[in-house]
Amino acid sequence: MPLFQTIQFNETTKILIWEITESFEELSSKVILKEKTQLRLDGMKSQMHQRAFLSVRMLIQELGFEDKDLHYDEFGKPYFDCHNYISITHSYHFAAIIVSHETVGIDMELQREKIQRIADKFTDYEMGYLEPNSTKEYIKKLTVIWGAKEAIFKIRNEKGISFKDHINVNDFSLDGSKTQASLHFDNLVKDFDVNYQEVKSDNFEGNFTLVYAFEK
After folding, report:
1. CA–CA separation, 169 vs 144, rounded Å?
2. Is the pTM of this model over 0.90?
């Protein structure tokens, strides 16, 4: 499967989504990896993770970059040797990246009922507007909240940040696509614009939630 979707969010921000239908062999034949990346790939025990990893390389190639252009800092945060910020996510049969001149983070999650069981681990402020029940709407809202917090964590990438205690996501409607969030950590307060949308494939069961955040 080639590129699944491209979203031109604004003049300097683009999101690319890859649907992972190729075999490991097909993907690895289409990318050139530097030695450090190849060693990391070889160390992965799950072929699904390997295919997702290679799909990310396919995505950066779509933007004219190569694996040699992509680096990771000491905390595992990806970056390019240029003015573009990049954030990476993968979930089951999808991989996605966001590239921007702005500071950004991205996350993609499969909507699953079991997120209800861990809601108290990552929500506190949000319980002021959530209505806990077993409906699809509740599950979808929890998935947006988790994705927003994951995207913000990827932006800040600081040890000790708690999804539950330090990141607040404002109320939002599933009929919309935007909300705001804030991080309160170590005397630091940062605000974020959050965007979200649903992604569905005809090839696989289940709906996914794509969330991306911009630091204000």
Report:
1. 9
2. yes
